[in-house]
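Box S1 | Example of a co-folding query
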Amino acid sequence: MANALVDAEWIERENRKGKAALDEDFDALGRQLARRAIDIEAIVERVRGFAVAVPSWGVGTGGTRFARFPGPGEPRTVFEKIDDCATVFRLMRSTPGVSLHIPWDKTDSPGELRAFVRARGLHVDAMNSNTFQDQPGQVHSYKFGSLSHPDPAVRHQAIEHNIECIRIGVALGSRALSVWIGDGGNFPGQMPFRQSLERYLESLRAIYDALPDDWRVFVEHKLYEPAFYSTVNNDWGTSYYVASELGPKALCLVDLGHHAPNVNIEMIVSRLIQVGKLGGFHFNDSMYGDDDLDAGSIKPFQLFLVFNELVDAELSGTSGFAPAYMLDQSHNVTDPLESLMMSVAEVTRAYAQAHLVDRHELADAQQRCDAIGALACLKRAFHTDVSPLVAMARFRDGGAIDPIATYRASGYREQKTRERPAQTSAAAGIV
Ligand code: RM4
Ligand code: MN
Ligand code: MN
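Box S1 (continued) | Returned holo structure for manganese (II) ion
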C-alpha cells in the first residue's frame, strides 16, 4: 500500500527492504577506509552535519526560451511549493532550508507562510530578488537593465524591490539576500562598461544600507545571458570588487553554471576563500553555459574538486568561512523532486569524498613536486564509492536509504496530480 504523504512510517517501511544490503556495503566500505586509516563513523558524522538549501523555483517544471512543458501535479502556490520541499526534506534530511524568489513566492501573509514552513521542520534560506523580469502593473521596465539602468527612476524601483525582499525575508526569518541581475548589453557600444558598473555599485550600496546587522548580501556574477554581449557583474573579479567596496556583509556567490566552458571554477572558489569573500553557491551543472542541469550530472569530478577546496578550508579552520549552499536548477524534463533528490545526493557525495583526501599525503606530494602523486591522491578519494556512507548518514537521520524509489512507490506525484489540476498559466519557474 502506498503512502502519498511520504511520512516517517512509510520511509521506515521502505527502508526495511534495503537495510541488510546497506549494512553489508557500509561495513565493506568501512573496512576499505580503515585500511587507509580513515574512520568511516567520523565521516558519517560530518555528512550528517552537511546541509544544502533547495530553491522554491526548482519544484516546478522549468523551461527554455523555446518552450515549457509543464509536468503533472505542479505546485501552484508558495504553500504547495513548500509542501514539495518538505517531501524532499523528509526523504533526504539534509535540506531544511528553502530559498525563496520574490515576487514568485510573494504572499499576503508572511506570518502564515513562516508558520507553515516551521511546521514542516523547514526554514527560509536566502531571499532572491528579481529585477530581470517585468511584473504586471510595474511602472518602469527592466528591458534595458535594473540596478545599473541609466535612468535613476528605474534604479530606484529596482533598489526598492530589493529592500522589499529584505523586509519580507525578515518576516520569514531569512538572513540573506541574493542579488542576480540580468543587466547587460547585446551589442558592442550598447552599455558603457565603467558607468554601468558604477551605477550597479551605487544601487547596491543603498540595498546594503538597508540590511539588518545579522544579514548578508550575496552578489552573483554571470558571464552572459539574458544579455549576449556583456554583463554588468560578469565574473568573480568584478564580483569581488563589488563585494569589497560594499563592506563585510557583502559576499560573492558562485553559481556553477555562470562560467565559460572549461573555466577552472575550483580555483575561483579557492581565491574567494583566500580573500574571505566566498558567500555561497548555487549548485547545478552545465555542458555549455547556464544550462541549469542537475548538480553532478555532467562533471562530477569538477564538483568533487570544488568540494576539495571547501572541505580543505573547513578542516583547516579558515576564519569566517561559512558558505551558504544552495541548489539553483531548472528541471525541464524530469520530475523536479527526483532531480532535487539526486542533486542533493550528488552534492553530498562530493562533500563526503572530499573528506577522503589524505591531506598530508597531498601536501607532501606538492612539496616534492610529485604531480602524479598529487593527482593519484585526489583520484583515490574521487574513485571511492561513498554511496553506502551517504545513505547511512541519511538513514540515521530518519531519511530514505533509496529516496527516489521510496518516493516513486509512495504515489506522491499521482496524488498531487489529482489535487493540483494543471493550470493554463502556471506561475513562476525559470522560463
Ligand atoms: C539566473 C541566476 C539566478 C536565478 C535565476 C532564476 O541565471 O542563476 O540565481 O535566480 O537565474
Ligand atoms: Mn543562480
Ligand atoms: Mn543561472
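Residues 91 and 400 are 5 Å apart (CA to CA). The mean pLDDT is 97.
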